[in-house]
Amino acid sequence: MTALLFRDDPYARACATTVTAVDARGIRLAHTVFYPAGGGQPGDTGVLRLAGGATVAIVDTQKGEGPDEVIHVPAPDAALPPAGAAVGAEIDWARRHRHMRFHTCLHLLCAAVPHPVTGGRIGADKSHLDFDLQGAAIEKEAIEAKLNALIAAGHRVAPRWVSDAELAANPDLVRTMSVAPPAGQGRVRLLEIDGVDLQACGGTHVASTAEIGPVVVLKIRSEGKRNKRITIGFAGEEAAA
Question: Where in the chain is CATH 3.30.980.10?
Answer without folding.
Answer: 96-234
